[in-house]
Amino acid sequence: MDTWSPTAPCTPAVCVARGAVPVALPRAVARLVALTALLAAGAALAPLRRLVPDAWVSHWCRTLVRAAGVRVRVTGAAAPAGGLLLVADHVSWLDIPLLAAVRPARMVAKSEIRRWPVAGALAARGGTLFIERDRPRALPATVARIAGVLRAGAAVAVFPEGSTWCGRARGRFRRAVFQAALDAGVPVQPVRVRYRAGDGAPATAAAFVGEDTLLASVWRVVSARHLSAEVDVLPAVPPGRHRDRRSLCAAARPGHAGVPAATLGHQGGAESENTYLL
User: What distance in Å separates the CA atoms of residue 45 and residue 201, rounded to the nearest whole number?
Assistant: First the structure.
């Protein structure tokens, strides 16, 4: 791992709450089968994406999350049409379909995701913009490529923290990707994603952090009881309001209660397997 990639102190052992009674094994297995079937169907139909209305894609993404046993609540105004940079904090692999439920977009993701079973094929066929996090010199070209996609009127979704956090702690946003929005002259759509337990308290069962494997994280989700996802679509930041990526990044950063991100972003700890350079 290169020294430029973001790190997070979150690990499954430290951050993921234990002790909750899981659902019955047959129900967890049924959720896993349904989730896998929907992912496989999505991968098979991905080449026909241009023929599928965005509303259908958003509905499929919500269905995917619900199939995993997670209730979904989306609040806020509809995201703008045309070129748009969607940004959100990053907790889980579930964040990806939840963002697409707000507005289908081309994701920015680490190149390692190509090797993920089923999901990797779905990401590649869905037009994901893969980046090589071990090549810092490739960053300007990546930003230019994102700007080109935005200029063409498409939406691009990215997690500027660059690493997954447990949800109780948050990392700081990296500024590089916001340059693409400035260069393309498109709005930025902040989205806040939070996971809750049945009693309304913050839940970490969905977190995909540290040395977590994708399978372990998926199984923890499908085994969880009364897990819900809250997706807040915050007011979009229109183009032209901010002249530099620093101020645009600050304006797009969703506010969070609890420990300030600045006190956590430079702590030691295991590096998330889900990190990338932006």
Answer: 37
The answer to whether 78 and 236 have CB atoms below 8 angstroms apart is no
The set of residues, in sequence order, having a beta carbon less than 8 Å from that of 33 and lying 6+ positions away, is none
CB atoms within 10 A of CB 31: 22
Most confident of the ranges 31-35, 75-79, 274-278: 31-35
With a CB cutoff of 8 Å and minimum separation 6, the contacts of 102 are 58, 74, 79, 86, 189, 191, 231, 233
Distance CA 217, CA 208 (A): 6
pLDDT per residue as tens digits for the range 109-126:
776 777 666 666 666 666
How many whole angstroms separate alpha carbon 127 and alpha carbon 31? 27
- Is the Cβ–Cβ distance between 163 and 4 less than 8 Å? no
Cβ–Cβ under 8 Å, residues 17 and 221: no
Burial (CB < 10 A; 0-12, 13-18, 19+), residue 94, is buried
Type of residue found at 219: W
Tell me, what's the pLDDT at 4? 41
The more confident residue out of 13 and 52 is 52
- Bridge-based pairing of strands 84-88 and 129-131 is unpaired
Secondary structure letter of residue 113 according to DSSP: G
Closest C-alpha to 209, from 155, 170, 243: 170
